[in-house]
Amino acid sequence: MAELLTLTDVEARYGQVKALHGVSLTVGEGEIVAVLGANGAGKTTTLRAISGLVKRSGEIVFAGKRISRRSPEAVARLGVAHVPEGRGTLSELSVRENLRLGAYTRRGRKAIGEDERRVLAHFPQLADRRDQEAGTLSGGEQQMLALARALMLRPRLVLLDEPSLGLAPIVVDEVFRIVRELNEREGLTVLVVEQNANIALSASSRAYVLEVGKVAFEGPSGDLRKHESVRRSYLGY
Amino acid sequence: MLLAFDWTQLAQQTVIGLSVGGTWALLALALVLIYRSTGVINFAQGEMAMFSTFIAWSLVNHGLSFWEAFFLTIAISFVGGIAVERVVIRPVERAPELTVAIVTIGLFFLVDGAAKWIWSSETRTLPNAFSTRPIDVAGVAFSIEDLGNIAVSVGVVVLLWLLFRFTKVGLALRASAVNPDESRLLGIRVSWMLALGWGLAAAMGAVSGMLTAPALGSFDQNLMQVVLLYAIAGAVLGGLGSPIGAVVGSLLLGVFITLVGTYVDWIGTDLRTPFALAVILAVLLVRPAGLFGRTAVRRV
């Protein structure tokens, strides 16, 4: 499998506080890779380092290009759609406007219009609310919108930050079902960060476990499920 | 007095109020545009508008007609506003709001000084954009100038609304003002959007100045200082941060002040400004977010 994203010894800091102490990971084309870990382990920071929302050092290569010094807008323009923690929907804008902004960097009105229809087909509940302000949607709908907006970029890689946060279990299942469906049908590559290890492991093919800013375990998701200490610390049985 | 109420006078005074309020509305809109993206009032907005008006004056003096000078000044101001943002504001883009506010106060004196240095402080006149003749509308005589000013103000507001509502760049401007980080993740160059906002604000201020100066007869470098105060008052009344609020607030304020000056004898022209500001204070005590503002909800 061709490697799409490679992190080598990536460090990141917020002011004086170091949040990542040399994280290395890879994501192959067409894979769903999960990053697990407790609160404060550096999961979100890993995604923010890839996008350039946080000061980072080390090497980050995406699709053969070094992106460790690029700004968030430049990384987005390479085809990385980052759905941040708290979903990042622009709450004062309508559902449609959010979707149109997802395709902000693309040219070609016609193709974008077609993508809007195609994407909304995956999310029927959004289609009904397309003129509503995003802030008036439920948490689950906002997560769907964030995902739909990411797809509007025709991304080569989607970074998903805690999609399960604050959602009812049934909605979480729905979100991951759609992610898997997109992966199987359209070959979407996803790097997902989750506290909910159970669902993340069942949706992904490989996973990394972060502990205090470092990779503690890594491997195929099926193996990690059976891994004694992973099971005890993150799966709770 | 009530028996012989003069409806003609009321209509005339209302139009005068809308005309004055319209010029305030443009500057108020400029303030709101900057406020939404930076969280501060640009105290130099009025002085920048004054500077633009002097540019228009120079252009007219070089033989251009008012309208040629008008559109050229708008273009120059737009570019100038972008340049000001890149040079003066960009270095403090991530600084606390108070820092940015103080920088705009510095900018106030800088622009003011530059205008005095370039044009000296004697008074000048800008020709009237519209005829000052009266025109008869349904039996009431209005000044063409007032109606023209209202038309231009409304036109600019509508254009701006179309830009924000229906264009890609307008959408990006709205997104970057409210959610800068999320917008960057979508590939929007937020920093440039900020500069673009300054350009638009400067252009609107220029229109405000070029409508205000002819109406006053003569002007000097103090042209926009009172206008800035009214624009701030109008924007606050409408709810700082709400573009519709800024327009409606300024128009209401213009009409209100004009009518109070006309009908309440003991207030007259001297006391009408403090009286109007007292009314705004009263409104804000009842509705702290202003007429159209949303109460700020912040996650901490």
Alpha-carbon distance between the termini of chain A?
Answer: 33 Å
Q: Could you say which structural class the secondary elements and strand pairing of chain A correspond to?
A: alpha/beta
Distance between the termini of chain B: 57 Å
Q: Spans of chain B with pLDDT under 50 lasting ≥5 residues?
A: none
Strand content of chain A: 25-35%
Q: How would a textbook summarize the main sheet of chain A?
A: 6 strands, mixed
Molecular shape of chain A: globular
What's the alpha carbon Rg of chain A, rounded to whole Å?
A: 17 Å
The percent range for helix content of chain B is: over 70%
Strand order of the largest sheet of chain A: 6-7-8-3-9-10
| Count of folded domains of chain B | 1
Largest interface: A-B, 24 and 17 residues
Average pLDDT of chain B: 91
Give a structural overview.
The complex is a heterodimer of chains A (237) and B (300). Chain A is globular and about 45 Å long. Chain A has helices at 43-51, 72-77, 95-102, 109-122, 124-127, 139-151, 169-186, 197-203, 221-226, 228-235; strands at 3-14, 17-28, 32-37, 55-62, 65-66, 80-83, 157-161, 190-194, 206-211, 214-220. In chain A, the strands form two sheets. In chain A, strands 6-7-8-3-9-10 form a six-stranded mixed sheet, with helices on both faces. A four-stranded antiparallel sheet of chain A has the order 2-1-4-5, with helices on one face. In chain A, helix 3 (95-102) packs parallel to helix 6 (139-151). Chain A starts with a strand and ends with a helix. Chain A is of the alpha/beta class. Chain B has one domain (11-121, 128-286): ABC transporter involved in vitamin B12 uptake, BtuC (Orthogonal Bundle). Chain B has helices spanning 7-38, 45-61, 66-89, 97-119, 144-166, 168-178, 180-185, 190-216, 225-238, 243-263, 272-286; strands spanning 134-137, 140-143. In chain B, helix 2 (45-61) packs parallel to helix 4. Chain B is globular. Chain B starts with 6 loop residues before the first helix and ends in a 14-residue tail after the last helix. The interface between A and B is medium-sized, with 24 and 17 residues.
